[in-house]
Amino acid sequence: MSQYFADIAPVTFEGADSTNPMAFRHYNPQEKLGGKTMEEHLRFAVCYWHNFVWEGNDPFGGQTFQRPWFPADTMELARAKADAAFDMFRILGVPFFCFHDHDVRPEGDSLAESHKRLNEMADYFEKKMANGGPRLLWGTANMFSNRRYMAGASTNPDPDVFAYCASTVKACMDVTHRLGGENYVLWGGREGYETLLNTDLGRELEQMGRFLSMVVEYKHKIGFKGAILIEPKPQEPTKHQYDYDVATVYGFLKRFGLEDEVKVNVEQGHAILAGHSFEHELAMARTLGIFGSIDMNRNDYQSGWDTDQFPNSPSEAALAYYEVLMAGGFTTGGTNFDAKLRRQSLDAEDLIAAHVGAMDICARGLKSAYRMIEDDALEGPRRARYAGWDSADAQAMLAADATLDGIAARAEQARVNPQPRSGAQEKLENIVNRYV
Asked: What's residue 347's pLDDT?
C-alpha cells in the first residue's frame, strides 16, 4: 500500500447530473449494451510509463513532477512505484494495466541482471494481481530509450544489438506469459532511419521481418495464447518509420507471411501524425483483418508532434468505437490510455481526474456508437449508396473471368451517361451529432 493516493477514495458512478470531478458520469461498468457490460466492451487499461515513469520533461524543459519513487533506480523504489500504481488501478477500478520492462525495473549492470530484476518485479506483480489487482492487457519491451538503440533495435546495423533485442523481447514475452497477459506489443520507436546516406533499407527490412517471424515462432513455442501486436508509428522519433501506418504494417506483414499471426494496436495520436483520422486507421485495420487493440489519446492539432493528451472529444470517441464495434469488438485487445498529464498538472489527484474524464468520454462515445449501429443510422445510407453493386450485372464486372474490354463493351452498348449523386456528407455529420 502506498501513501501517494491515500486521501483519494475509489471512483464510483454517480450519473450524468453529477458535478463531482472525481466520479464517473457516463461510465457505469455494469451497465449493459447488448449482452456485454460496459466494462467488457471497453476493457480499460492504465499504462505504467506516462503515469509512473515520466517526470514531466519536454524538449525545452526538465522535470516538473516530484513522485516519491523517483528516480526508481533501486528495486526498493521500483516496488514503491508498483505500490502506487496498483493503488491507482484500484481507485479507478480498471480491469487491466500495461507496462514496458524498463518501466517496472531499474536497468542492471548486465543483461542478465536486468532480466533478474524484471522477474523479481513480476513476482511482486503476481502477488498484487492475486490480491484483487487488475489483469495484464499487454507487456512490451522498451527498445528505444537507451543509447544502444539510437540506430534502431531489430533494424540496427550492429548484430550484437539485434541479439540484445532478441534476449530482451524473450524475457518480456516470458514475463507477459507468466502474468497471463492477453497480448504482447512491439512498438518500433526507432525502427526507421534518418538518412539513406548511411542506411541499407532492404537489409533493415529483412532484419525486422525475420525478427518478427522469430517472435511469432517463440509465441507458439511457449504456448502463449495472446495476440502479437504491432503499433504503427509515423515519423517520430525517426524521420522515415518502417511501421508508418496500418496499411504500411499490413504490407510488411504480407511480405513476410505474417498477416494471420500479427495484428495492430492503433493509437489515435499516431494516426494523426500519419495524416489520418483515428477512425480511418481503425476502419483500415478492420477491413484488412488485423484489428487488435487501441491506445486512446489525442494530439494537439496546433502542434506537429505526439502530445499524448487524454481524449476529450465525444464525437471522435464515438467514431472510434463505431469502428471497434463494427470490427466485432475487442477480443484480446482493449482501451489503453497512452496519455499523460500536462507538465503543470502536479498533484496525485490530477492523475485520477484525467483518467476519470477519459473513461467517461470513451463510455459516452461507446454508447453513441452502439445506438448508431442499433438504429442503422450510418450503415443504412451507406448500403443505399452502394446498392447498385448488388445487381448480378454489377457483380459480374468483378468476377474472376471479367475483362477490361468486356466491361468497356458493356458500357458502350448500354449507352448510359451516369450522373453523379450526392454523397450527403453534411446530412451524415448531422446524424452523428444527434447521437453524441
From this structure: 96
Q: How far is CA 43 from the centre of its chain?
A: 12
Residues of the chain with CATH 3.20.20.150: 32-374
CATH number for the domain running over 32-374: 3.20.20.150
* 270 in a labelled binding site: yes
Q: 103 an active-site residue? A: yes
Peptide bond into 68 cis (omega under 30): no
CB of 298 within 8 A of CB of 312? yes
Catalytic residue among 100, 102, 276, 355: 100
Question: What are 47-89's pLDDT values in tens digits?
Answer: 999 999 999 998 899 999 999 999 999 999 999 999 999 999 9
347 is an annotated ligand-binding site residue: no
Residue 306 annotated in ligand binding: yes
pLDDT digit string, tens, across residues 197-235? 999 999 999 999 999 999 999 999 999 999 999 999 998
Which residue in 103, 174, 245, 360 is the catalytic one?
Answer: 103
Residue ranges of the chain whose pLDDT lies below 50: none
| 100 included as an active-site residue | yes
- Helix %, strand %, coil % for the chain, to 5? 45, 10, 40
Read off the pTM.
Answer: 0.96
58 is in an annotated binding site: no
Residue 360, classed as helix, strand or coil, is: helix
Report whether 295 belongs to an annotated binding site: yes
Return the closest-CA partner of residue 378 out of 318, 335, 290. 318
- Quote the pLDDT of residue 300: 82
Strands 44-47 and 135-140: unpaired
* β 262-267/240-241 pair status: unpaired
